[in-house]
Structures are given as structure tokens and as C-alpha cells.
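[SOLVED] Need 3D model of a two-part complex

Original post:
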Amino acid sequence: MNVQQGTPQRARGALVWLDMDQRALDDAYDQVVYAPNRDQVHKRNEFNSERVRRRLGQPKRLAYGPTPVEQLDLFPTKQAGAPINVFIHGGAWRQRWAKDYHFLAEMFVNAGANFIALDFIGVDKTGGDLLPMADQVRRAVAWIYQNAKSFGGDPNRIYLSAHSSGAHLGGNVVTTDWKTYGAPNNVIKGALLGSGIYDLKPVRLSKRSEYVKFTDEVEAKLSSQRHLDLLNCPLIVAHGTFETPEFQRQARDFAVAVKAAGKSVTLLVAEGYNHFEMCEMLGNPLSLIGSAALEQMKLA
Amino acid sequence: MNVRPDTTRDPSRPLGPLVWLDMDQQALDDAYDQEVYAPNRELVVARRHAASERARARLGPPKRVAYGPSEHEGLDIFDGGTGGAPVNVFVHGGAWRRNRAADYALQAEVLVRAGAHSVILDFINVDQAGGDLFPMYEQVRRGLAWVWRNAKSFGGDPDRVYVSAHSSGSHLAGVALTRGWQEEKLPRDAFKGAVLLSGMYDLHPVRLSKRSSYVKFTDAMVQELSGQRHIAGLHTPLILAHGTAETPEFQRQTRDFAAAATAAGKSAQLIVGAGYNHFELLETLANPYGLLGRAMLEQMRLAPN
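Solution:
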């Protein structure tokens, strides 16, 4: 029995994007339609995060900006001068916290990297604007670069991992003009973007526009696929075969575009994984995704 | 949305006569049918096969050894790389009727990377055995004994032999660890620890379920092959695990066995995996940072890698 299912057979309405009518497009941006075990996987993430905190202790909570939400959780590794993995969580831009992803920390810490999970504002608190979210994660990366030595991190070995709407923001981070942020253009040495969104146009056409105030400016500035000239690091782009058609296409098209721009990209397609299970894979060094993250950081 | 129901009983369906605890026949049958509670079974199994192929590609083919006279009695040894290394023997599940060692190569990688040998048993299935569980049990018992006796032949340390098992494999391992070692005339502490996932430790309710359509349960089988009834013979520290999204009976079997072992003064740690179903729980054993992979390595005093 296949539990991941798309839109059932029904009369099709006018096409609004590619071969999709409004309902199909809405479904393609609604994870639970294709991943009915969403809440169960989230429960596992929280449960496993608690177990990791019991083993590693509470992370250091550090402020990277002036507002209360602009903080990060740092799990330091033993050696000084070690590389850093910065994780940007997903949650449709509106849910989840850094603490729900502590389960990812132990693999990186044991492999010899500092692990940082970012908190940042949710779109419901910004009046539907995505620009402050992108600005916060970019400032977080600049802060980490400027302060890495204070916590034993190597500012010249900062890597990114990100999932879902976090991978959308991660796409923005790797296509940042860093001059205004006080960091070098090659501040990110590599990024693994899992199950993300790289062009906002179809998202804008979907029911996500009920809670995200897409404007031409937001769409233009925060579609990383339109700013590949600024891309300065090798990318790993990943999706699962049980993700929605749009989340599969976004990853595929982004990878093609990056390659066409003459930049380094690897597309990983995880057979049999849905959107939320993809994020679990990142915490397993034997998995397609976890092993790729470690190899990118030269820790495998 | 929760896709794994707490109960499968349609409230509009009248409850039939109770056949076991608070369950009527339909509820009990469902509680011994994994797919009712784990609708993504095939998907998770496909992932396991793919991961096993990846593992075999990375580790190379295992050494294949016969541990008994019949064609079924073979085992795969994945070399941990160093002489005198600890050993873990895995007993697979599959409702006593499915699966083979080759499809569990992913279990080896966690161990080999941590510096242990991984042994994965093949054994007859219940359909090949005409519905009889005894030949399965006897083969698993012989397989475990072979590993203990021959550990040095493949660079293993006989004083550090551990067991891991899943589902019906945990049932068979549970019997081997409570009484099998005596039948094989092994020292009582031959196995230094075991992680048993999602198993069955008393066959009585299983006999009452629709599983009796393919398992020919007898009074002797229920009595002799219920690990919980032989707990006095248990001398191996156990980690017993189930997921919260498993069937009610698979949760209860593990919980009750853990309680019985503890009440008998034995070492048993219960791990309840929040949000895991029967098949997803096993995936965590193949991850050094997963719920049970981490627990297994800790039990074996190995660092995850």
C-alpha cells in the first residue's frame, strides 16, 4: 500500500502552473497531502532532540542580532578551530524551532564539527513578509563568521545545511551580496539544500499566498534561482521521490540552472523518502544525505 | 494528521465477544497484522533494500558460512577489521515467513564502522517448515551458538558476543537467550547483551489471532517458545524497544516482557520510541545516531562513527 498520494481523480480546472490546476498546485505546496506521517516525524524529531541534549548537554544559546528571536544554538565540538555546520530549519516559513532539530547535532559534533541551529522570525510575525526572515539568516551567517573564533570555530570553514522553507532561505544565503553584511563573498564553503524552494513564482500562485504576502519585490529578491551570479560555493541539492511534484521539480530545476550557470552542484534523489523523512536522513552518516553532508565538509 | 490509528475498530462496528484482554477477534487479528498499523510498510522495506545494496557496495561482500547441515543454515559475516573485535549477531523479522540476511546488510555498516564484526543469520521460514516454529527456533539457536563457538575463527572475541533482533526475529532470539543457551550447553553469559526490537515474548495471544492460519501452534510450542515463560534462564542484559505507533499487542508484548524481566531481577531496559511504527523503528538501528543504533553501540561499549 502506498500512503503517499497526490490529488485524486476529479474534474480538472483551468491550469494555473505547468500542468496543474489550482487544486493540484495547492496540494503540491501542502506537504501533508503527500506526507501523511508529518506529525509522527515531528514527534520523532523532538523526541530524538531531547535524547541528544541529554547526551551532549544543553547547547550554548547565543544572540546574533538585537531582537529576542535572533539567537542560535551552538553544540561545540572538542577540537578548537573546527569547521561549522549551520542548519536552517523548515516549517513552511511559519513553524518549528532550532531546538526541534538538535537531533542532528551529534553526528556533526562527533565528526569534528561545531553544529549550529538557527532561530529566526516566522512569517506570521512579520505580517507575511519573507524579507526579514532572509535578512536574519544572512546576518546570522555573518555573525558566525565574525565570532567563530570566540567559540572555537574556523571562520573559513562555514558550511550550510537546510531543509524545506529553510532550504529556501539557505538558497538566499548562498546567493547573498555579502558586502553589506560584513563577510567575504566566499563565506559559505558548501551547502546542502534539502527539499527546498528556489523560485517563488509558483508558490505565490498557490494557497501559501494566504499567509505569505508575496510581492514582485519578494518574488524577485528571494528566488535564489534568479541570482546564481552571486553563488560562490558548491551545492548539494536533494529531494525525495515521495515529495510533492513541485518540491521535486524545484530541486531538479534549481540543480539544472546551477549547472547551466557553470557552478558546482550535485543533485541527490532519495528513493522512497517523503519531505519530512528527508530531514531525518541528514542525521544519519550512513545515509545518502548525511554522508553527503560530511563528505562536503571533508569529515567523512 | 495521524495515519497510525490507536485502534482500528470502527466505532460503528459492534464489538464482538472478547477473545484477548479488551479485544474482539477483529481487533486481535489487526493487532498481529503490522500493515494495519504501518501502512507505509512496503515503502520502508524498499528503503531497507536500497540501503542494504549501498552498504554491500561499501563494505564488499560478506563471508558466507554454513552454521548447520540444512541449506537454510547460513550466515553472513561482515568483517569489523580487527582481530579480537566484538561481534553482533542480527536475527531478522518478517512475521516468521519473510526476508533473508542479504536484505539486512545495512545493519552491518554501523557495527563495522564502530570496529565490530556483524553477523546476519539466515534460517528457514515457517512456510518452508510446514507451519512449525521449532525448526526456526532451533536454527537460530544453532546459529547463535556457532558464532559464540567460532568467533575466533573470523577474528571475533567470544567474550563480547551481542545480539540484535527485530519483530519475529526478536521472538526467536528471546527464546534462545532464555533457554536456548542451555540446550546448546553454552555458558549462561555467552551473550553479553541484546537489543530486541518490537518482538513477541508470549505466544498465547498470537495463537488466538489469525496468525494461526499459517503457524500451526500447539500447546508445546506456546509453552516452550514463549521467552517470557523461561525468564529464570535469562542472563543476558536486554534492551527492549517498541515504537508508540506499533500495534497495541506489539507495544504490550515488549512492555510486559520488560516488566517480567525486571520483576525477576534481570537487567532489562525499556526504550519507547515516540512516533515510530514497527518498520521505522528498525531503521533507527542502522543509524549510529539513531535511537536504537546508539543504544546498541552503548551496550557494546563502542563509540558511534
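Edit: The two ends of chain B are 35 Å apart (CA to CA).
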